[in-house]
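Homework-ish question, so no full write-ups if that breaks the rules, but can someone show me the predicted structure for this set?
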Amino acid sequence: MMLLNYSQPLELTKLIKWFDNLLRASLPEFWTLLIEFVVVALALLAVYVVVALLLIYAERKITAFFQARIGPNRAGKWGLLQSPADMIKILLKEIIKISRSDRFLFFAAPFFMIVASFATFAAIPFGQSLHAIDFNIGVLYVIAISSLGIIGVFLAGWSSNNKYSMIGAMRSGAQFVSYELSAGFALMTIVVLSGTMQFSEMIEGQRYCWNIFNGHISSLIAFVIYLISGHAETNRGPFDLPEAESELTAGYHTEYSGIMFGYYYLAEYLNMFVIASIATTVFLGGYLPFEIQGWDGFNQIMNYIPSYVWFFGKTFVLIFLSLWVRWSFPRLRIDQLLNLEWKYLLPINLLNIVLMVLLVLTGLTLKDLFGIL
Amino acid sequence: MEDIKKLILDTVKDAVIEEKQKLTVTVEWTKLPLLAKTLRNNKDLPFDFLVNLIGVDRGEELGVNYLICSSKDLSKEIVLKTSTTNRENPLLYTVTDIYESAHYSEREVYALLGIRFINNPDMRKFFLNSDWKGFPLRKDYDTNPDINPVSIESKEIQDIAPRIMETEEGQLLEETVKVFEDDDYVINIGPQHPSTHGVMHFRVSLDGENIKKIDVHSGYIHRGIEKLSESLTYPQILHFTDRLDYLSANMNRHALCMCIEQAAEIEVPLRAQYIRTIMDELNRIDSHCLAWATHTNDLGATTAFIYGMREREVILQIFEKTCGGRLIINQNVVGGVMFDIYKDFQKDVKAFIPYMREKLAEYDRFFSHNVIALGRMVNIGHLSKENAIAYGVTGPAGRASGWSCDIRKHIPYALYDQVNFKEVIRTEGDSYARYLNRLDEIEQSLCIIEQLIDNIPEGEICAKTKPIIRLPEGEYHARVEAARGEFGVFIESRGDKFPYRLKFRSPSMQLVSAMPLICKGEKIADFIGIGGSMDYVIPDIDR
Amino acid sequence: MNSLSKYFLGIYTGVKSLLVGMSVTWKELWTKKVTQQYPENRKTLVVSDRFRCELTMPHDENNEHACTACGICQMNCPNGTIDVQSKMIETEDGKKKKILDVYTWDQGMCTFCNLCVITCPSSAIKFENNFENSVFNRRKLIHRLNNEGSKLREKKKEVKPAESKAE
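A: Not a homework solution, just the prediction itself:
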């Protein structure tokens, strides 16, 4: 596909190219790759932590505004230092060892959680050339890896020797298994539309027509279902049954303290980010700007905004939506939660895939109808 | 009531009937269940609502007073009295089979006075540990702290309930029953738990997520207010009432003041009556706002919780300016009120009324029709009218079951006979009906305030009372409608400046006593939600 | 068909109710917040005059108070927070007279029921609305209310001012 060559002065492509060339010029292939791997890993880790801290701050502040409060305002200007301060506090806190708990599993559980969220995080394209691994089955990988987190929740509930944790973990199991289905099917709908499972190809295919517009009705339904089930997978209200503060005090992580609790906390926020960014990538054109075929001047202006800003902007809008939902609704009960999935989301989803297949086969997608590239 | 007297004499020939403040009937303890049953099953006017069960140490003998009234007309009241002279092993017959609400009250009487009730299915001590020595409300109780030292060791909770059953041959059989089965999955909800609204301990046995059985374990913040009151003068006791159900502090205090005023025949000035009524209703709105807020929070909607607090704050500001207190408002005194209203009181209250109406509409839009909220409330925790009466569940919860039980309508006090308001009654009896009842009652309270606020007459705010108030010998009852239901005060005076016996009827105790019934078979999540809809306040139970 | 239309009607009403709920929070997002920023707003903070925080015994410019050490407040206090210490002195005309020595009030035990103030026959004590009373030590909550060297304000004006300086 020939693309018009827009000037994109703020992109990081050149910087990365230059760094790569620099290394290759002075080092053999093996060392170049090793150094690049380490740098990429460190960069991802840094972004991971920064995103988590920012999310925690944003959630607190936005929640407060929804709730007629001011939110953090003591640590630093507008409470900006609140999250770093909390991070330091959580690092310094004592890790309480529970007697008569399964010590090994108890300590292993948070790592499953954090590893799952980090491994998914790494596969997300943040911008042009800001994509660590581009699997040809990226969508499948993300679905598979993100469900690893449930093992962490389960182990935590089981090994804590606490009845509340146990109930929380059992609820979590039912919830994860159910909503994974919907999330997966919703993504598969779009795979049908775009004909690829690779994130980079999927994004490039959306240049002038994001998937959510391309598949119109069907895409929109898939989008909403993905947001709902993604929200449920991250265990955030109204689907926060595994934690259910007013019922189970803190659910599966009741017994954790210090950094062990911090891992769960971090993973929860990152999962929220991961879900939002997958939705962005799959439905909203990822890091691509909003462009309209033929309007070159407009497209040029849009392209001045760098791709990572587009990506984080779109993701933030989705996260805001998730916060808005979370702080508006009461919690579902376990049977209602399963009802919602098995009686509403799943059948609608299955019909929706058929609808999408029909749309694609009969050439009723927007791209086909209007001849967009 | 003449035919009732006849009925009583027909049933128990040697019953002594006295016309005191209430119609008082004294019978032998063996005859009491028969009399209670007869009155309970009386066709035209069934005396099926046990208002208050009061254990009294009468010196030589230990006795119990039962204040019963008819659920059809709460103003038809009878006091049944019985006693036993055996102080070593006092035994009376239970009325639990006649009035379900007697169950916990009888356990309380056992803990505090040592009277055991034959045929009560579970005769563990309520409030006190099973190994507590002595019976605190007896006059000869030794208060020496060495007898019951404060233990820092954790104690296992007794899971085996003793009881005394009477066999068909009339033999008394001491036996024990297990509270839970051996393989029950029992979880503790409380004493420290975000949703018990205080230091309450429910032990819940679960079958998956479903509730099999609930055992209520109370007394973590029992302060012995009734015992303390026996050595304090009447004005000194007043400040305890604010600390019972702290959310309807003013109404509780109103009840005690009213009881003392009726006994001492003090006329309360009209201005004071106006202020009392307005403050009561403001207090009711405040309490219902908080009840709404905590109920929504129990269902997981944290934002709604804060909205409820926001509206409540406006009332608290008015309280603070009127009487210098926000929660413990300390306003009523014997003979009137402590503080006159401040200059802008009327203006502030009148500004509050439209504000609250607007917010009620917002509550409605935000939560009342929310599909998730409906799923969590409709047809959950169903309490039938019969059970509401049997368990003595009054207030918004009782009225949600279709029982007209508003004391303000049945036995008007203060200015409630001069204002127009609707008694909000729903017949569904589920969580949602209780929820809606509260919101509607806020609207009714606003109506009452609207009718009164412009007509506050000039005059005294407090009647002149003697420096030391002594009540004439006798037994006095007073009943008011607090935010959670009927709050009652019983004073037995022996002509002294201290009460001989003082007992509060706390509405929350009856609300909690109905919890095991209405939660059975529901999900654990709904147990929390039902608790929120019943809206009990624990310090009200743990007097 | 009926159940199918019910199914979709259920989805429609459900989603609608959720959106209405979200509109309420959306509106709240933009309203002015009611939170009071406490230490910053100390200058503008209005605490009701009737707010009961600290029991005080007002002294006038001559360091005189109105307490006759009758002990009624101490008697009326339900918690025993007030301790009135009096002493006997001999006035100039040879009469024995009871005057106030030390008036202590234990804030930590007070329930702020206001009984002491309303029963005081000479209006010698009152509650102030100064609410910033946190201290690090419980013993610091025990306040002495009468100033050092203060004395009873004489009701009759003709009595000579310098009388019982012997305190």
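Now go work out the reasoning yourself. Hint: Residues 143 and 184 of chain A are 7 Å apart (CA to CA).
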